[in-house]
Amino acid sequence: MSLLELPVMEKDEPIYKYQIKLHRYMVNYRYEKKKKILEFINDWYRTPTGLLSASSDVNYNSGFKFENILQFKNQYYHMMPKNDKSKDFLIKNFEKYNEEFNLELEYDEELFTTYNVLYFIKLMLKKIDGDLKKEVLEIEQDGKKKKQKKYTVTLKKL
User: Fold this and answer.
1) Which terminus of the chain has a smaller tally of CB atoms within 10 A, N or C?
2) 8 A C-beta contact, residue 137 and residue 151
3) pLDDT tens for each residue of 19-33
4) Parent domain of 131
């Protein structure tokens, strides 16, 4: 039996052995899904005008890569890929990840924005008992109050 197949309790098998197999399955399932989510985030951030390039298309770092999904921490919205790049990214990857994570979302490229990518990530994280937390900060700049949003991936321990 593969580690990615849901284990079935065999006849006369002690319950503790089945629980061990089930736990191993859940750990591997989460690990594989975390890898897919990380791949999704890295591909999205490597689009031109991604990370650290909010002001210039020339500065984007095509080699930037999150090594771990938990490194997606305190990521400011204004530093994420712009709406047009996020739209292109979702058009290209929507079906693949929608099916992979059984999200049952409807395809509507007219609505694709950076917020839709973040929502997509949030839904994928829910499949592995995770979440995408949003924090809104109010900062004062030149005598005006501005809101900045930052996002952090959280995961529950298995």
Assistant:
1) N
2) no
3) 999 999 999 999 999
4) 15-155
Q: Which pair of tokens denotes residue 3?
A: 């580690």
Q: What is the pLDDT of residues 126-139, one digit of tens each?
A: 999 999 999 999 98
Residues paired with residue 147 on neighbouring β-strands, in sequence order: 138
Q: What angle do CA 105, 106, 109 make, to 5 degrees?
A: 120
Return mean pLDDT, the chain: 87
Count of the separate structural domains present in the chain: 1
The residues pairing with 152 across neighbouring beta strands, listed in sequence order, are 133
Q: How many degrees, rounded to 5, is the angle at CA 8 between CA 5 and CA 14? A: 130
Q: Alpha-carbon distance 21 to 15, whole Å?
A: 10
Judge whether 5 lies within some domain.
no
Q: How many helices (H) and strands (E) does the chain have?
A: 3, 3
